[in-house]
Amino acid sequence: MLKHLYDTDCVTWSPQGKLFQVEYAMEAVKQGSICLGLKSSENVVLCSLKRQPSELAGYQEKQFKIDDHMAIAIAGLTADARVLCKYMRTECLEYKYTYESHHPVGRLVFKVAEKSQHKTQSGAKRPYGVGLLVAGIDPNGVHLFETCPSGNYYEYKCQAIGSRSQAARTYFESWFHLFEKSTLEQLVLHGLSAIKKAIMEDEELNEKNVEVGILGKNLKFTHLNAQELKDYIAKLEGFNPNSQIQQE
């Protein structure tokens, strides 16, 4: 049987038990430029590789601030990400207006996942073609979540999504045991090292094509400026995770 007979909407199951439009949306996430997140007991860092559609265009934004205590990094369709970003910001504002406190991170991620799942239940709609890494801090601690177009969501110590993200995940698998006690500077260097593993051989990291956002228990979400990025990239040459083990 031909595949295209079952991919005209997202409520028709194939004989193999698949929803092809949901799989297409998840493929859009895999084709997006890489973004990753990692956390310690005190801080969480988001790193993204920005793409330039042409030499005449600027770099696409990959990270969005939701509130002082929360931000997202995206892989996939930027237009869909902006819709979800607006929804998350509205939910945070309404929660703050009602309860005079920050929206719990896990509860908001659940709302986003539920919204994504509703898009897979109607033939008149399509799934969101974007994956989110949600970094946040609330009274329950430091959080890093991933959401999928299918409506699934997971909490991680570190995670990478997007194209060539497997190389970054392999780096994380080798060093994630160090992240819990890492300083903010060490987390940023680990994040940039993972991004460097995932880029093409003819590419190089610079302050224009990489974006780093930082958030801590005593630090509101902020992006590193161009000079700070340049300094961190310069430190990568001498960065050795093994030295962190020796210090411990």
TrEMBL record:
UniProt-recorded name of the protein: Proteasome subunit alpha type
Report one GO cellular component: nucleus
Gene3D superfamilies from the entry? Glutamine Phosphoribosylpyrophosphate, subunit 1, domain 1
Q: Does the keyword ATP-binding apply?
A: no
From what organism does this protein derive?
Paramecium tetraurelia
Output the superkingdom of the source species: Eukaryota
UniProt entry keywords in alphabetical sequence:
Cytoplasm, Nucleus, Proteasome
Similarity section: Belongs to the peptidase T1A family.
The question of whether Nucleus is a record keyword is answered with yes
| Coiled-coil features, chain-numbered ranges | none
Alphabetical list of Pfam families matching this protein: Proteasome, Proteasome_A_N
Q: Write out the annotated subcellular location.
A: Cytoplasm; Nucleus
Q: How does it assemble?
A: The 26S proteasome consists of a 20S proteasome core and two 19S regulatory subunits.
